[in-house]
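Record pair follows.
FIRST:
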Amino acid sequence: MIVEFARRFDEFLACGPAINWHEHVCVTPDGSLNETVLEEIMTYADLFGFSKLVVSLPVVSGHCDEERMRGNNNIVHEAVLKYPGRIFGLCYLDPGLTVGAPFELERCLDGLGFVGVKLYNQYTLDDPVQDEIVRQCAKRGKPILMHATKLNMYSEWQPFASHGTHFANAARRHPDATFILAHIGGGGDWCWQIKSVAPYDNVLVDMSGSIHDLGMVDYAVRRLGADRVLFGTDRSFASCVGKICSSSLTRIEKETAIRGSRLAGLLH
């Protein structure tokens, strides 16, 4: 078994260079960039052959003010500057800040060189409050990575979390935008999520998350195509590499997913 895993892991490395589309930086108790965690992430990146990582720092509980939103994005930018050409930033926005969020989008995407937007669970993706952000991203050709889950129990924990139906609604309304449904392995019914967005070519999924059900990645590739399935970890490094290693994907399918072929051109 160890020999077989070593063979599959070598194959994973050979299919790279890997682009990790879903990772996060962290803050210290005093609100500064947690450099210890950042170095840990980069250690794993070297070990697993991640050539590029796309990171964000969302507010995961409740809403925030403009100062915190801007501060979180400044911390992401600090990490980008520490690893230029290796770490790329997503601009976190709280769409409820209807004046501040569009300005922050412009600052990060046009001024700081961020490669897309990160939305969390403050509003569902198809809420009209998101429309201006979506339009601005579509105009710039930048993707929106949205926290997503399909909870079959305890849904009151995240009453405004987006699931596949919200993505489908947004994809129909904004056919020129590119959406990434986050962490199919991050909780909830991943099969339902994939089926919900299958008809919409402008919705991609990332495989990140600590859940590593056998067949998850294979099913996503069969229903969506390998170019709509992005590699990501969301702090579950070994688990997500294992999803590829244990899959029955062809060499070309693995390379397409690992290299994030459809969006790789955004990371210069």
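SECOND:
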Amino acid sequence: MFVAAGRLDEAATIYLGALDSEDWRGPALLLAQEYPPTLHETQIGRDLASQWQLLLERPQVRAAILRVGRIESFDIVRP
């Protein structure tokens, strides 16, 4: 919700907490992975993805991700 509202400071705090939690680390790392945009993505979806990317590019967020996992790019396209 904070990402969608553009409140990236609050979103970063929550996301960093999730990365530190053994229970939430897996789902948090899954959100950091890079996938191609869908064919029928809406403007709202593009805006949310843009805000999420801004969050992931923050140095403290990037460092926390790399401390507990990694970010990979998946070029998955439907036939």
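COMMENT: Residues 3 and 50 are 10 Å apart (CA to CA).
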